[in-house]
Design goal:
Elements lengths: L5 E5 L25 E5 L10 H19 L3 H5 L7 E6 L6 H4 L7 E6 L9 H13 L4 E7 L3 H7 L7 H4 L1 H9 L1 H5 L3 H21 L2 H10 L2 E8 L4 E4 L6 H11 L3
Parallel strand pairs: 3-4, 3-5, 5-6
Antiparallel strand pairs: 1-2, 6-7
Helix pairs in contact: 5-7
Length: 257
């Protein structure tokens, strides 16, 4: 349920006049009635709270309700975390993973970047993966792309953007690989196709990670590829299974001891 924070303005009562006016034709000045006006914090108004102030106000409400609905949740989280899921997703503001999965704080360990790219040698994502798999002992790794992805749209175009161009190079490589297939598709279909292929590519990279390989053998950690539909709010799981010979070849090539 969405909560509104209201601002209340009260007009000030005009002080009484102390000077007597000797003009019988004029009635004495009327005291203005006290008025109360409410302003919606989300309305476009000079009195509206910006999103940061609203976030702080809403946080207090959320914390109070969380404590009421599950008194043990926050004190338990204060002692540590034991998430079962590592989520690797896009930085896009429209995909808050804990919310769209209907889970609670502490359920998902998270890494997000532009276009949910998983470069093999990236220290940032690599550190998250290592910590989640080797220390937190997650059971599932989710790599999630999404429709209407700005990074994918940029990779499908040829406009120079800036520093992000280097980050999008893996997507451009996938675009080149799929060039013949993409030629016959409309723009939305091109985006979705590249989104899906980016997820599949990232899943392959994750499965080649030595920590993920070891955890898969030792305790059955599973890597999943998902696509989130921004328009419907639904997650769709991609078919990312491997043949037995592919799994064996991967173990031979990437397993380290």
């Amino acid at each position: 349920m969405r909560h509104r924070t209201l601002l209340t303005l009260r007009t000030l009562r005009t002080p009484s006049l102390s000077t007597t006016v000797s003009c019988p034709a004029l009635s004495p000045p009327q005291q203005p009635q006290q008025q109360q006006r409410h302003f919606d914090a989300n309305a476009r108004s000079p009195f509206a709270l910006d999103k940061f102030d609203l976030a702080l106000a809403q946080n207090r409400i959320w914390a109070h309700r969380a404590a009421q609905s599950d008194p043990h949740l926050l004190p338990t989280l204060a002692k540590g975390q034991s998430p079962e899921i590592l989520w690797i997703g896009c930085s896009d503001s429209r995909i808050p993973e804990t919310t769209v999965c209907g889970l609670k704080p502490g359920d998902i360990f998270v890494h997000r970047n532009i276009a949910n790219i998983v470069p093999p040698g990236d220290l940032n994502s690599g550190s998250v993966i290592e910590y989640a798999v080797a220390h937190l002992k997650v059971k599932h790794i989710i790599l999630c792309g999404h429709t209407s992805c700005g990074g994918v749209n940029a990779a499908l175009g040829n406009k120079k953007i800036g520093g992000i161009d280097a980050w999008l190079m893996p997507l451009r490589s996938l675009r080149a690989k799929l060039s013949k297939e993409l030629e016959g598709l409309g723009q939305d279909q091109k985006v979705l196709r590249l989104v899906e292929e980016n997820v599949r590519s990232g899943v392959r990279t994750l499965r080649e990670n030595p920590y993920v390989l070891a955890a898969g053998k030792e305790r059955g950690v599973v890597v999943h590829g998902l696509v989130y539909d921004v328009g419907s709010g639904e997650l769709r799981e991609l078919e990312v299974g491997d043949e037995e010979d592919v799994v064996e070849a991967r173990l031979q090539a990437f397993e380290t001891v």
